[in-house]
Design brief:
GO terms for molecular function: methyltransferase activity. By secondary structure, the protein is α/β, with parallel strands linked by helices. It folds into 2 domains: 194 residues, Vaccinia Virus protein VP39 (Rossmann fold, 3-Layer(aba) Sandwich), CATH 3.40.50; 47 residues, no CATH class. The protein contains 11 helices and 7 strands. The protein has a 7-stranded mixed sheet, with helices on both faces. Helix 5 links the parallel strand 4 and strand 5. It is globular, with a radius of gyration of 20 Å. The model has no long low-confidence stretch (mean pLDDT 95). The structure holds S-adenosylmethionine. S-adenosylmethionine (SAM) binds next to helix 2.
């Protein structure tokens, strides 16, 4: 009887139980471990994530938010996104972790593309993973200013983009076209023709849970449209915009690929920009 009461208690209180040895989906695995570890490494040096109120801008399906809570003890995370992939999280987590319910402090919100969050949210930390390259260019600064207002003075914002537009895989089309810098070398029409013609397997580490909704051809259209809407920000442009919004840079890391870009591209773009595939930024709202 006591055993049964304990199980009922654990089902409704505290952190829910999970089993990470059950994970089979590559996308889930990459977010549950790799992305989450990096977010934790960068933010955890400045904030005690277990005590902090966190906001994830562009949370997608919310897998890394869930992992920050289950694996690192974060207690309060609010994810916002213009899509509603996070609605799939309870089912995904049941399948991949045998998780019976999401943690109590995890919440999600569907927002409009430039909806103001300041005033409604006041947090200690913000994270944004692979999202800012998708924000319309003229919305980047207003959104950065709004996120600045959401942070308490002294709070930090971890921002990651990979791949950056001008790098080898910056089109986000590698799952269909395995040619580096192809988007800077051929026309948009040719890119679309090559995507349409693709009949091979997809790298499951790059296939998100949206694939099930779109189907094979719908997913091609979705991925191509995402490519067309990329804002093409370079790392330096992003940093300058964040500083203009008021943030100070605590730490920055530009990762570069070793591959040599094709000569015709080097005549048009700086080598530094063509090889810089990732930017990791830790920003702070000054004033604590
Ligand atoms: C490549 S996904 C990354 C999602 C998630 N961070 C992850 O790592 O799986 C980019 C996300 O940014 C979201 N997004 C794009 N523009 C946005 C905006 N203006 N405001 C909020 N979310 C946005 C998209 O809906 C999408 O979920």
């Amino acid at each position: 009887m006591l055993h049964l009461i304990d199980r009922i208690k654990s089902a409704f209180q505290g952190q829910p139980r999970f089993d990470e040895s059950l994970i089979t989906n590559e996308w889930f695995k990459a977010h549950f471990f790799y992305a989450t570890d990096l977010i934790h490494d960068w933010m955890g040096k400045e904030l005690d994530l277990r005590q902090s109120k966190l906001l994830n801008f562009g949370c997608g399906d919310g897998i890394s938010d869930l992992a920050l809570m289950l694996r690192y003890g974060a207690q309060r995370i609010h994810g916002v996104d213009i899509r509603q992939e996070f609605k799939k999280l309870p089912k995904i987590a049941r399948e991949q972790l045998h998780l019976q319910r999401l943690p109590k402090g995890l919440s999600f919100e569907n927002i409009q593309p430039s909806q103001s969050l300041a005033g409604k949210h006041q947090v200690d930390g913000i994270m944004s993973w692979s999202t800012f390259e998708h924000v319309q260019r003229d919305q980047v600064l207003p959104i950065a200013r709004d996120l600045f207002q959401c942070l308490r003075p002294g709070g930090v914002f971890f921002l990651q983009i990979e791949p950056l537009y001008y790098s080898a895989w910056g089109a986000h089309l590698r799952r269909y076209i395995d040619t580096p810098w192809v988007h800077l070398l051929v026309s948009e029409e040719e890119l679309w023709q090559r995507i349409q013609a693709y009949e091979g397997e997809l790298d499951m580490g790059e296939v998100d849970y949206g694939f099930d909704d779109f189907g094979v051809d719908g997913y091609k259209r979705f991925v191509f449209k995402e490519y067309q809407h990329l804002n093409r920000l370079t790392a330096d442009e992003l940093i300058a915009l964040m500083q203009e919004a008021g943030f100070e840079v605590v730490r920055q890391q530009k990762n570069h690929m070793q591959d040599m870009p094709p000569l015709p591209l080097l005549e048009h773009y700086p080598q530094e920009v063509l090889t810089n595939n990732e930017i990791l930024l830790l920003l702070r709202r000054p004033g604590a």
